[in-house]
Design brief:
Elements (H helix, E strand, L loop, with lengths): L1 H21 L10 E5 L4 E4 L7 E6 L5 H18 L3 E7 L6 H10 L6 E3 L4 H6 L3 E2 L1 E6 L4 E6 L3 H16 L13 E2 L18 E5 L9 E9 L5 E8 L8 E7 L10 E5 L5 E8 L5 E8 L14 E8 L10 E2 L14 E2 L5 E4 L5 E4 L7 E3 L6 E7 L5 E6 L1 E9 L10 E8 L4 E4 L5 E6 L8 E6 L10 E4 L5 E8 L5 E7 L3 E7 L1 H5 L6
Parallel strand pairs: 3-4, 4-5
Antiparallel strand pairs: 1-2, 1-5, 3-7, 6-9, 7-8, 10-33, 11-12, 12-13, 13-14, 15-16, 16-17, 17-18, 19-20, 20-21, 21-22, 23-24, 24-25, 25-26, 27-28, 28-29, 29-30, 31-32, 32-33
């Protein structure tokens, strides 16, 4: 008899345990549910009648099954949220803090409310056993569907249940076994990567007006060794005018405003034209520019074929400068547009603009003309991981490209790319992570829009461009660099009235929209 009593007690105990495990039966009203907000406040959910359905999902930021399923859960939510179905996430793991869950939700694009159930009371009430797990309630707060979310078959069953709910049709019970991570074994805390990044963007005109110089063009920018940004361009009454001058402006670290532009070079008989500014590894700052030496008077926009390359240097971050010198003796024709790159061996390679490159080797103080090319002009060049060089060329209708496998001494024949170009200046930089960023006019005929795009495979393919400027007017001749803090800095001609500076990070190019 005593043995029979123990059997009956054990059976009753198992029945109670089974009831607590399986929780609500279909058709049972859930009733008011006390939830703990991630910030710590307590709320009671009892407003089921305000919507056709409520999907209660048991989730965990420490659960690998949830991690693998969350993108599909988000897609299911996106499909039904505008049809007024409320998704509610519940975490029954007492070890997961509100901050940990908030980080998980934000970085996984969860845009439905998440709550904590640290004592597991809600999980026991529902009979939840794993994560992720779904309980679908109707407008009366009654359970009408229960299933898993960890696999495609379970999510398809959940989607069918949601559709039937909205169509007011009978809902079939899920025939798919519920899989997932047991609630009492969610796993250790883990780092959750942030796929959305942080978007950074600002812009300003370097100046609004310079007395006696209304037209400005062809800017370049560099970062000095002390962190100052230095912007160089030419301006005057018009392109090729007698009063054309080289201007320099400075922006100190942490400041938003540029210094008043100063005139660096001006000569009515031999005005300065296109210039580039750059800082070599030693910290010495260079300016290389084309001195226009054609006979005057000269019509607007002419004279670029009769230029001599000049240079000056600074050892105090551009505060004072050396005397002007010729870069190449007795050579006419150079019009620089893009600054040089430093190759792996230490050689600086500078495009002279029209048909050659210039090289300054580590063991020499003299620049040499090398690497004739054709099929475009004003190259923008980068060095690939394998040591080969890629140069993109300004060209009418589309950008062309050439390649070198001997350090720029010789170049392949130019071939067209899929990138548009109206025959205007372009600029390209290789980032610290190996990605390429190109700034160009994404049009075969117009200097607007001004656009930016990336290549993740060293120029084999390019992503769709983002636009920096789309209004009518000229936005051209960009220069792009990456500063020591990894920000991208771009300067360009702004309607010929001024020079504009844009500062952004790579995330701005990539992340056009986040979950909201």
């Amino acid at each position: 008899m005593r043995g029979m009593i123990w059997v009956l007690v054990l059976a009753a105990s198992l029945a109670i345990e089974a009831n607590s495990v399986f929780g609500l039966e279909p058709g049972t009203a859930v009733g008011p549910i006390k939830l703990l907000a991630l910030s710590g406040e307590s709320i009671t959910m009892n407003n089921y009648q305000q919507r056709p359905g409520t999907a209660v999902l048991f989730l965990s930021g420490r659960c690998e099954a949830t991690e693998k399923a969350i993108a599909e859960i988000n897609r299911l939510h996106e499909k039904y949220r505008l049809r007024d179905v409320l998704f509610v996430g519940v975490c029954a793991n007492s070890a997961e803090s509100g901050d940990e869950l908030r980080t998980f939700a934000q970085r996984r694009g969860i845009i439905f409310p998440m709550y904590r159930d640290p004592q597991g009371e809600i999980a026991r009430h529902f009979g939840a056993r794993v994560t992720p797990e779904l309980f679908l309630l109707d407008s009366k707060g009654s359970l009408i569907f229960h299933g898993g979310m960890a696999d495609d078959a379970s999510r398809q069953a959940a989607g069918k249940a949601l559709g039937a709910l909205l169509r007011k049709e009978p809902i079939e019970s899920a025939a798919v076994p519920i899989q997932g991570t047991p609630l009492d074994r969610p796993g250790p805390k883990r780092e959750v990567d942030d796929p959305y990044g942080t978007v950074s963007f600002s812009s300003e005109l370097v100046f609004e007006k310079i007395p006696s110089a209304p037209a400005h063009h062809c800017s370049t920018i560099c970062e000095a060794a002390n962190g100052d940004l230095l912007c160089l361009w030419y301006g005057g009454s018009y392109e090729s005018a007698d009063d054309q001058a080289l201007f320099l402006a400075r922006r100190k670290p942490g400041e938003r405003n540029w210094s008043t532009p100063q005139v660096l070079a001006q000569n009515a008989l031999q005005p300065p034209g296109n210039g580039v500014i750059f800082c070599e590894a030693s910290g010495r700052v260079w300016i290389v520019w084309s001195r226009m030496e054609g006979s005057r008077p000269m019509r607007r926009g002419s004279g670029w074929g009769q230029c001599r390359l000049m240079y000056r240097t600074s050892t105090d971050h551009g505060a004072t400068w050396s005397d002007d010198r010729t870069l190449l003796d007795n050579t006419i024709g150079g019009v620089p547009r893009n600054p040089p790159i430093t190759l792996t061996g230490g050689t600086m390679l500078l495009p002279d603009g029209q048909s050659h490159f210039l090289a300054l080797r580590p063991d020499s103080s003299t620049w040499q003309r090398i690497g004739a090319f054709s099929g475009g002009s004003q190259p923008a060049v980068i060095e690939r991981r394998d040591g080969s060089l890629l140069a993109l060329l300004r060209h009418s209708q589309d950008i062309t490209q050439i390649e070198s496998r001997d350090g720029g001494s010789s170049w392949s024949a130019a071939r067209p790319t899929l990138l548009k170009n109206p025959g205007a200046g372009i600029s390209m930089v290789k980032l610290k992570n190996g990605h390429l960023v190109l700034v160009f006019n994404d049009s075969p005929t117009s200097r607007t829009p001004l656009s930016i795009c990336r290549s993740l495979d060293e120029g084999v393919t390019w992503e769709s461009p983002m636009h920096l400027e789309t209004n009518p007017g000229e936005y051209s001749y960009p220069c792009v660099i990456q500063s020591s803090d990894s920000k991208l800095h771009i300067t360009y001609t702004f309607r010929r009235y001024s020079i504009k500076h844009v500062e952004l990070n790579e995330d701005w190019i990539v992340h056009v929209e986040r979950a909201d």
